[in-house]
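Entry type: protein chain
Record version: 2
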Amino acid sequence: MKIRILSERDVYDLLPMAECMDVMEETLKTLGRGDGVNPLRSMLRFPGGNGLLGLMPAYLGSPKTTGIKVVTVMPGNHSTEYDSHQGLVMLFEVEHGSPLALIDASSITAIRTAAVSGVATQLLARKDAKKLAILGSGVQARTHLEAVLKARKIREVSVWSRTESHACDFTERESAKHNIEMKVASTVQEAVSEADIICTTTFAQEPVLNGEWISPGAHINAVGACVPTFRELDSAAVVGSRLFVDRLESALNEAGDFLIPKKEGVIDDSHILGEIGDILLGKVQGRKSDDDITLFKSLGIAVEDLGAAHYIYEKALKAGTGVAVDLGGPKA
């Protein structure tokens, strides 16, 4: 049998942001209907605490497929030429369990994470949202800018990064690419002042965004912190928000932005109002008023990788993209 190998360049060519947002919407609906399996990720932490290996399996009933993402997460890579998330997505068919594809995971992660935030922004941000604040200047900052520009008619973008030169480089490059006004903020408070949409895409372990700085009616996509002990938002920001997640089980076990204020006793599990899939299916209400502060806590779940991988694979077959390699075969 043949397995198709697809590179980072292949993924970016086959998975435009707008198409990925549509795929993520359908994937989260499928999961919300109960037609998917998304167990908690398994993590192997490296001695010394400088990185980890994550294993993220999943199953979807529509389209019927299964697979796993194997990814390293290396916070120290932010000062190097390497992406912080690197790995592979392995796609299988479910009738015989045969492997179908081996796909670059860094690019899938970059696109699908932002695409889900784009879907959340479509559902939760005010329709007249015009100002975007991005905290961070890495890969997720870049893709989140693209996704939010698809979701709302943004007129102004403010960028903050711990390293100001990185924010300057990011702003110069992306403002020319998207033909939009962008500026560098010297502080987080300055960046989020009067912002309608805020995307936190940092590797912060302690809060960088305080609740007192958030304007009424703002929507927040909290993306960077993905372990129980890290958070980007302080407790006041979470307490004051209508909170939604990509997967309830994941948030209750992995989301430091939720678990830390819960440990402090200022919120409980009922503060999570639902999953994005629940909003899409009409099971829960998202924004109730223009003054609501809405918060999407993203952890990035395996069904999102799987949905994206299947979509890429189907397009690759039609286009003849990638390299087909003989691997395995019928039993001897």
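Comment: The first strand starts at residue 2 and ends at 6.
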